[in-house]
Amino acid sequence: MAQRGRHNLDLVATHSTTVSSLLFAPLDDDENDTMSSLSVQDDSHLRTAQPSGTGTHSPYLHPTHQATASTSTFNVGGQLAASAAMNTPTVGQTPVGTPTQASPSTPRAPASRKSSSLRHTSTAGPADSLSASIKRRPSSPSAKEGKYSSKTTPRVRATPRLPHSDDPPAPATAMYWSRAPVHGLLPMRSFRAHTVTLVDPVAWLFGGCDDKGCWRDVYCFDTETMHWSRPETLGDVPPPCRAHTATLVDRKIVIFGGGQGPVYYDSTYIFDTTTRSWFCPTFPHSQSSLQNPTSQPQNPQQGPVHPAPRRAHTAVLYNGKIYIFGGGNGLTALNDLWTLDVSRLDPTSQATMSYSHGSYGTHRSYGGSFGGSASGGLRWSLLETTGKAPAPRGYHTANLVGNVMIVVGGSDGRECFSDVWCLNLDNLSWTQVNLQISHRRLSHTSTQVGSYLFLVGGHDGGAYKEDVVLFNLVNLQYEPRTVKGKPPSARGYHVTLLADSRLFVFGGFNGHDVFDDVHILDLAGAAYLPQVMSFRVDV
Fold this sequence. Notes:
Shape: globular
Protein name: Galactose oxidase
Pfam family, one: Kelch_1
CATH class of the domain at 173-283 and 305-348 and 372-528: Mainly Beta
Strand order of the largest sheet: 1-3-9-8-5-4
Structural class: mainly beta
Largest sheet: 6 strands, mixed
CATH superfamily of the domain at 173-283 and 305-348 and 372-528: Kelch-type beta propeller
InterPro entries: Gal_Oxase/kelch_b-propeller, Kelch-typ_b-propeller, Kelch_1
Distance between the termini: 45 Å
Keywords: Kelch repeat, Repeat
């Protein structure tokens, strides 16, 4: 039996300032997408506008990264930043596997840290209009994107590196951490704020960013053989982005939102994992484009017909609809709830537009329906819920358990939340869970394993975490659980998924470095013996 033991790591946060100091914290760039980075002001604004008596150090940023430009999700201080509207690049304009600012010329050295080449200087002042701060369907802020250098040597590993450890023995039934023995065509970059979607045994990684910028390439990881590969893709490739959502619908991955730098997206992209092709449906953003110009609107008081640009939101699939909750639009945190009807998703058909007034409850909708069908295809709906709703937030998690969406943690840019909320998707009613023990978390992951949610890593408002916290879905309370082996270093903005009784952790960020590693948590008997086989969440 392999030798096993516990490995303690020092957490990477270098400050312990209270969360309230985040109101005056300097901004992030694409290297520092932490809780203190959730304001949208340009750092040139902050250097002139920041009160002299306030602290200039954030508990979420390394001191060497304090003065970099904003690529944030939330606006805490109240100033606006303008983002230029640009057309979405086509495959002919920008290669698929390119960053926004600089293409890597050599393989990334995992332990090294180079100064960022990604800088943004906003030309917008506080008096700029709101419309200048949110743009629809923009592309990369930079038009100087290039291919991988022809001199770049691909990172190919023919033989897996099996993990070795001098840790003391652990029981065979214990949950156990180890680093995945990956091989194949390794990613040419590290990744954080990316998405990884499991289709059969293959995990599809898209987007995210590293210390060079945001990316829009696709990698495949076989969870059975630990083999990396990079497929060629076709069609309307999305622009580079991070903090988006990816939802699996019948072997197709639906990407929504995200952004890069000061730019936020409201676009929807569909990736067919069978044909490896992208498709971008087009939605109107106003009722005037859907109605006869000579007719009057039936209800002039109707609200928006499309979600605002956002990132750091969540998405779950229920009854043929993707439920989008929260996030940030660059000006404020959000707590609105939208659905995208994907019950008849067919990106092979040409999209036609239709509009109808909502008839279910109190919601408004419009659609881009495929194949000319007005009743199916893609249709956005804004839902109104009952009960006290969660505070606006981003970098939270959302899991679908039966007919209930469970939201854990997150941040509004000022506070790291510890609350847990349940939304019944049948009657759209919110319920807050009364917790005996709570854990503050943002940028963590939450993965359902039977009757438990496994919360891995994240930030607790003071430091990045490396622990695993279990949330019991039967009594809706947290439980302690011992985990053996060598865990991943403390991090957030990673991705965790369940495959073959193992949790896989991809990448992440610890305030200093962006990771490209893959770790495995073997669940073993300790994870499954306490399980309740049949249960439901009653809220």
